[in-house]
Amino acid sequence: MNKDVDLLAKHLTPNARVTVLTGAGVSAASGVPTFRGADGLWKQHRPEQLATPEAFARDPRLVWEWYDWRRQRIAACRPNGAHEVLASWSERYTNFTLITQNVDGLHERAGTHHVLRMHGSIWEVACWTRCAASPLRWQDETVPLPVIPPRCSYCDGLIRPGVVWFGEAIDPGILTRCHEATRCDVFLTVGTSAVVYPAASLVQEALMRGAFTAEINLEATPASSLVDHALHGPAEIILAEVDERLGLLRGSGSR
Ligand code: OAD
After folding, report:
1. How remote is the CA of residue 195 from the centroid of ligand 1, in Å?
2. What are the residue numbers of the active site?
3. Which end of the chain is less packed: N or C, by CB atoms within 10 Å?
4. Residues lining ligand 1, CB < 6 A?
């Protein structure tokens, strides 16, 4: 067993308070496109044309066509080994928090409890004008959408995707819980390029609060030089190896 994996597994003791921050890389093996990198979504589109309130105000049809395409793509994907290991940890550890920047819902589909979704959900929608009759957000998993742009069933105005766009604030309640979760024993950042804030600052916060910090990513990121331990490789393989090592430690009675 690789000694890098071993070191991380040794910190994941049964009573450890564990917080994991994930990004698009955890869903890559499921077939969900990431944002940056050679085949990333932001290579083909500019974020300001598709993922800002201004873009939606300018061209709601274009924005919804892109979200409808992503929804169809994600609906055809299944959780992978990385989601599954994290879901099992969410059951095993009493103090486990999963913070994700992903909007695809694959952590929930793998059975992870109490996911903190920093950037919302692609499976939720909200009234664009926040009409008085509508809830703040509601679930809509229709794929493909029969009408683009879709209309609000409460006021017949436009609805928008239930995601956080560039320039928008993250739900303050969720943000507070994310900050609270940096008070932990092990903070693991997985499959994120660590360039989008405030998510990218959480690892530093955890470090300052005394957590053992580790990164799992295919390549080096700005977080790599900050963390105690950087493991480079596919999350679905490394997490499975860590989990296997945890099983061996439990079996040997050393925990
Ligand atoms: P990015 O696309 O920026 O980064 C994905 C990261 O995953 C990269 O660092 C890859 O090296 C890594 N990666 C890819 N495949 C992997 C694998 N199999 N195992 C491990 N790592 C892998 O995605 P995020 O960091 O999630 O925000 O992006 C953050 C935010 O920027 C997104 O939530 C989105 C985007 O713009 C909004 O839309 C508001």
Report:
1. 9
2. 119
3. N
4. 23-25, 28-29, 34-37, 40, 47, 51, 101, 119, 164, 166, 191-193, 196, 216-219, 221, 234-236
Residue nearest to atom 6 of ligand 1 (CA): 192
* Tens-place pLDDT, residues 109-136: 999 988 999 999 999 999 999 999 999 9
Ligand 1 center from residue 197 Cα (angstroms): 13
Task: Output the pTM of the full model.
Answer: 0.96
With cut-offs at 50, 70 and 90, classify the pLDDT of residue 254. Answer: low
Given a cut of 80, whether residue 233 has pLDDT beyond it is yes
* Domain ranges (residues) in the chain: 1-30+79-119+171-255, 33-76+120-163
Match domain 33-76+120-163 to its CATH number in 3.30.70.330, 3.30.1600.10, 3.40.47.10, 3.40.50.300.
Answer: 3.30.1600.10
Fold (CATH) for 1-30+79-119+171-255:
Rossmann fold (3.40.50)
Residues 6+ apart with CB under 8 A from 95: 15, 16, 17, 18, 184
**CB neighbours of 28 closer than 8 A, spacing ≥ 6?**
34, 191, 234
| Cβ density class 150-173: b for 16+ within 10 Å, e for less | bebeebeebbbbbbbbeeeebbee
Pairwise CA distance, residues 209 & 203, whole Å: 10
Mean pLDDT of 5-30: 97
pLDDT average, residue stretch 76-90: 98
Give residue 7 CA to ligand 1 midpoint distance, Å: 25
Query: Residue ranges of the alpha helices (H) in 182-234?
Result: 202-208
